[in-house]
Design brief:
This protein is an alpha+beta fold. Strand 3, helix 3 and strand 4 form a beta-alpha-beta unit. The radius of gyration is 24 Å and the shape is elongated. The structure holds zinc ion (2 copies). The site of one zinc ion (ZN) has 4 residues, from loops.
Length: 391
């Protein structure tokens, strides 16, 4: 290899940070990434790449090279409906919208990767496809997010392998975390109404008390994880809201609860859909009734071991074993999952902890250590080239 991507990414660092700050100052919600997509498309055209805009609504796709294999690299571009609480000179200029998950940095890093790979002498044969995806955090009126919309638009057609990264604001800056198999959870929400019959609080016998019933229902829900699921398959069920009644002396007609169910494998996920219905149906055993709505979100991201192995080896060769950290994956959600179900793929996490202030994702004080970005860009570029060579 001639100049390494570590060196070129180092040279590009001021530009990566400038891009990130520009996106950070001008955040846009899902499927409204018009300005962001415009900047991205212009930068890619400046490189001489073939660029398509409006892919999956507001997505951008750029193509470099041709033939097989086809390696996809994905970044997401959307921000969140959060009022930024940071006092930095690149603070959000779009009041109430904030890049609080780091997608601004993903977009900036992928622009750098596009530049590095375009300018790479003796790039191996094959195609690199750059995906700048809209709306990872939310979904449209049909319940579909950006990854699904891009796939529907055919953006992933012919792709052999696909890679991505996600920054982690709680991990040391520049450290790389890569796991095999499932790394995020399938995320499904449920909304249940427990229906009883209102009565005077002094005469519960003349009604059907939904508050008493919902207590039994919540017990049954908590029994799903402990009594119904395979103990070695990860899953979690949380009741996150409960609303019912308005007065101490009135039994209400109904109580509403909602919650989330998270799991890794598809069989467990489908079992959860059945079990939640059975748990809520406990209401009928007490003379009440129920209505249940499931809002099915994205499936789990599956890191194909043959792709994560390439990322791991590239990270070792570029940055050494000290910069690879072992950490179990969590139960978060990520719609890159749709892409890893379309082509074998893997996502790694890039530590970008800024300081000793707690800056969780989706928090008004979220911020990143920008020194990590050159690491992410170099690793994406190196992995893509290795995947091209593998053919
Ligand atoms: Zn997020
Ligand atoms: Zn995110």
């Amino acid at each position: 290899m001639t100049t390494s991507f570590v060196e070129t990414a180092d040279t590009l660092e001021p530009q990566i940070i400038a891009w990130r700050r520009d996106f950070h100052m001008h955040p846009e919600l899902g499927f409204q990434e018009f300005r962001t997509a415009g900047v991205v498309a212009q930068e890619l055209r400046n490189l001489g790449l073939e660029v398509s805009t409006g892919v999956g609504k507001t997505g951008v796709v750029a193509i470099l090279g041709e033939g097989k294999p086809v390696i996809g690299i994905r970044a997401d571009m959307d921000a969140l409906p959060i009022i930024e609480a940071n006092k930095v000179d690149y603070v959000s200029q779009n009041e109430g919208v904030m890049h609080a998950c780091g997608h601004d940095s993903h977009t900036a890093m992928l622009l750098a990767v596009a530049r590095m790979l375009t300018n790479m002498p003796d790039r191996p044969a094959g195609e690199i496809r750059f995906f700048f995806q809209p709306c990872e955090e939310a979904s449209d009126e049909d319940g579909k997010g950006g990854a699904q919309r891009m796939i529907e638009a055919g953006a992933l057609d012919g792709v052999d392998k696909v890679i991505a990264l996600h920054v982690a604001s709680d991990q040391p800056a520049g450290k790389i975390i890569i796991n095999d198999h499932y790394i995020t959870a399938a995320v499904d929400d449920f909304y249940a109404t427990i229906i009883g019959k209102g009565a005077h609080a002094a005469h519960p016998d003349s009604g059907i008390d939904p508050i008493f019933i919902v207590a039994q229902v919540i017990n049954a829900i908590q029994g799903i994880r402990s009594r119904k699921l395979d103990p070695i398959r990860p899953a979690v069920v949380t009741v996150g809201s409960i609303h019912g009644g308005i007065a101490p002396n009135v039994i209400p007609n109904e109580v509403k609860i909602s919650g989330t169910m998270r799991s890794y494998d598809d069989a467990t996920r489908q079992q959860l859909w059945t079990e939640i219905e059975q748990a809520v149906a406990v209401a009928r055993a007490f003379g009440g009734d129920y209505a249940l709505e499931l809002k099915k979100g994205c499936p789990s991201v599956y890191n194909a071991p043959e792709v994560s192995a390439v990322i791991r080896q590239a990270a070792l060769d570029l940055f050494g074993a000290n910069n690879l950290i072992e950490q179990e994956p969590g139960m978060g959600g990520e719609d890159f999952s749709y892409m890893t179900r379309k082509a074998h793929g893997a996502m790694f996490r890039l530590g970008a902890k800024l300081d000793n202030v707690s800056r969780p994702h989706h928090n008004p004080k979220f911020d990143l250590n920008e020194g990590a970005f050159k690491v992410g860009a170099a690793l994406l570029a190196e992995t893509a080239v290795r995947l091209l060579r593998e053919g």
